[in-house]
Amino acid sequence: MVDGAAPLRALVLTDGVAGHDRINLGVLAALGRLARVEARWIGVREAGSRSRGFDRIAARFVPFERFFRSRYEIEGKEARWLGPAEGARFDVVVSAGPSTGAANIALARQVGGRSIFFGFPKLPLLPEFDVLLRPDRPAVRLGRGVTVLRPSEIDPDALPRPRRGGEARTMAALIGGDTKHYAFTAEDFALLAEGLRRAAARGVTVTAFNSRRTPAAHFDAFVAAFAPDDVTRRVVDFRREGFRSNLDAYAADVVVATADSMSMIAEALAARRPTLMARPVGYRPPARDAAELAEHVQAGVAAFIGFDEFAFDHWPDRAARLRELPYHPLARLAEAVRPALRRAGAR
């Protein structure tokens, strides 16, 4: 970072999804390694229903007012300063999540900045963003985008090193929830609660964290079974604690994250924790997630474990065999986004 230089102005788009906002925070943290950053966040919501691929093409060519006002709603008072008369200028526009893609392209044109987007490429051959960050490897050699670990603001250098193997004393259990591909059952939660109780019986302090997707009734039943009165078991409830309430999880010696939550898995890896990806019996991730998870397994930084396998105490040996992420995630991400700064003329 160059001290005394003009700040890099970043416009950050949020769709209200916590996982996407954590990705945005990660991109800002990476940019912060290259320049002093001033960020402004706005909430954007799609209006109506139309092909997102068509919208990303239209965002490049249709006049801003005609396109953007018909396709997006902006939260409250933020809408007023996006007009040309306001002269709002930003170096980069940052977003994650498919609903923000076309908004990112259109706003980058409007504010004179470069687009940085985390997601998956859609249109063949057409470079839709100035920097496309993707969590999977291109299927073909000429595939677009830069493959990175899903971004987060987590800096492993700011965390204590985990105790490994038989020395592990703390475990964080990060629990996701229902998706369009799988709905957790009461039996799934009961089995997970039993497994985590067994982990606590080994003298490991276990803390369970839920997320915005965790089914409320199932989680309440899980809590009743998992932590009725034992001080070695703790619960951090997203419904009360809110956004970023699971940050303490990444200081644990071992992290268990349900396999549906790609962001929480990536955050555990970024923290350089032994990471176990827990899946209920019968869970099959969608193809895109399966490819991303397979990358982690092949790299030796994460392993799968079934909810039922906790009952057999398999997790300590499996966690002990894992290696830590062999690179600093924010440093690698900074190199991935550096081209946007060069093209914006910021550095």
Automatic annotation (TrEMBL):
**InterPro entries with a match to the protein in the record:** Elm1-like
Q: Output the Pfam families linked to this UniProt entry.
A: Mito_fiss_Elm1
Tell me the protein's name: Nucleoside-diphosphate sugar epimerase
